[in-house]
Amino acid sequence: MKKTILILAAIAASAPAFAADTNWGKGAEDAAFKAMVHSSFREVGMATLSRLDQDATQAFCSDPKHADDKDAAKMRAKIEAENMATIKWPSDGKFLGDWKKGEKVAQSGRGLTSTDKPGQVNGGNCYNCHQISPKEISYGTIGPSLLHYGKLRPNNEETLKYTWGRIYNAKAYNACSNMPRGGHMGIITEEQIKDLMALLLDPQSPVNQ
Amino acid sequence: MRRWNFALAAVTAASLLGAVGAFAEADKSIEGIEKYREALKDGNPAELFEASGEELWKKPAGPKNVSLEKCDLGLGAGVVAGAYAQLPRYFKDTDKVQDAESRVLTCMSTLQGVDVSKYVKAKWKSPERDDLNAIATYISGMSKDKPVKVSLAHPKEQAMYNLGKRMFYYQGGPHDFSCSTCHGQEGVRIRLQELPNIPTPKGAASGWTSWPAYRVSSGQMWGMQWRLADCFRQQRFPEPIYGSDVTIALSMFMAATANGAIMATPGIKR
Predict the structure, then answer these.
(1) Which residue of B137, B226, B237, B251 pairs with B222 in a disulfide if CB–CB is 3.0 to 4.6 A?
(2) Is the confidence metric ipTM above 0.95 for this complex?
(3) B205–chain A nearest CA distance, Å
(4) B231 an active-site residue?
């Protein structure tokens, strides 16, 4: 009897996730797919083979159905909660740095590729996907426009925390966001996040002119 | 020679336009880039690579001192015309699905007796890779204006397509990027570069039918293997091994999705 209940419980727990899973078709089952991935790459520089190993968020979001399927909503909430728990708030309680430095971080797309050198300063890659300062017309559109970001929001603690959290770990707010987890994955430093925060929120920043 | 001067003038004009029009809207910049691409098509330096690729194809080489002319690219030994438009495909002799570049390696090995491991291990911009890029450019040029016609009839072809589709969405690395992060939406850009939405026929066609391509910014000729390797580099992934299944699978996914589109190879890019 206990066994039956356990099995039923297991089915109940796994059923919603299952319903939303993509069937990749013949020949692309888990074992074959893993074998392909693990035989197809070589390490170059700091781009090690361990980068092919996924964490729970990456594994979940590698199925496009999971991004918006209703049946996957519970899993998305769980992934978001796990990512929320990783966020480290500014160690000295100060959220805003120097917007001029922030502009440089936003402009740079450098860092962590197979051809980058270890120890160099990474960029935030921000302009690749977002409009930010009106002076920069070469911006991408994968993410929303951040023009007038601070001007459009109330100047309060909530805005500071939301913006910090979103830069530190975007997956805390949207499980399968396209945005990298800048702080959580060690792409940018706490200091750089402060500077980006100033670029977005400082009234003197061109973003808010 | 006049053609090259024209190309250079177009580049200069485009960069001047870029500087003067700093206040112009981004849409106008894209329009400018499009015009400059059009102008460049008039004298695509890829022609030089096609010529040197043809020479490499026809020149006896390797321990057996024979040319690659008897290579079977899928349409029978020695048939180059139209072959690229039907690749990747399953080959009985290797029992594998292969793209143009991995098939050339097979022919170098079997026909010419070449130890191809040094070509696989070579770095981009090495003489070995330059040769392979030139040969792929020549083969692709022989399919110019032909419709893409990739078969999924063999179970291994279907499996490769399915694997490619799954790989397209596979996230990893410090940035959580997959191919889909940039190439899975309609009408988006990185900076000013418009991105094809690869899972759609139109997007796959724009991605597949214009490579190999000459890249004006670097002055280099890139085959699809190099194109994919650089995508993975920007994804912060390790490097895909030349001709590895991941590269064939993604090519198969793109090519089959682009079926019916017209090859515009070799292409030209910024």
Answers:
(1) B226
(2) no
(3) 21
(4) yes
